[in-house]
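Consider this pair:
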Amino acid sequence: MSSLPILLSRFPLHTHPPVPLPSQVFISPTLWIHPTKDADSPLSADVECLKWQAYLALRGLSDLRVRTDVSSEGAIGRRLPNLHVSSSELLPAHHIPSWVDSQLSSPTQFEGYKNEVARDESRAWVSLLEGHVHAALELSIPRPSYLLSLLSPRPHPPAALQSIITPPPAPLSGFTSLLPPSGTHVSYQTVLTLYRDAISALSDRLATDKWFLGSESVYSLSLQ
């Protein structure tokens, strides 16, 4: 019975002031990218991240940092790269061009292309290559065995086909079952057909001109 008063007694309630969060000092805009193959190189091993690194360099942005310790799961839409532009603002890749324009004191007209038509055509070809062509290349990459994927410490995450293929592929389950949607149902033949059409269209375009997008374009590519 000696322990009963202790169990029934009121415990004292002590309150403490909130612990202030450490102040985060924002140094400069930082591009979140996939890690590099060479530890001494700042260039990402991922082609999408490398493309945006080249874009920022070609637009003349120099006071930028790169960060390689953030996985794609922590990025907007689970896709890298992201551009951290302030202590409270993180941009996905497709918002980078408009941010670059806002940072330049004298923005390059049409992003360096000779005119608006060349800029729009370039964007259309890039969209085609990053869509149908990229999807076909992703499906053609041999996947590691289940055992090898378990032994690999940090396997490189494959690009999400949901974000590449237009329209996005349907899930494997979820429409006619009690299970939530999971996986993706990708038609290999459809992706291959779109890939062939894209390569054929690009071949026809490159066969008609000596210069791609015009010889006066900053990003023009000689076919010779």
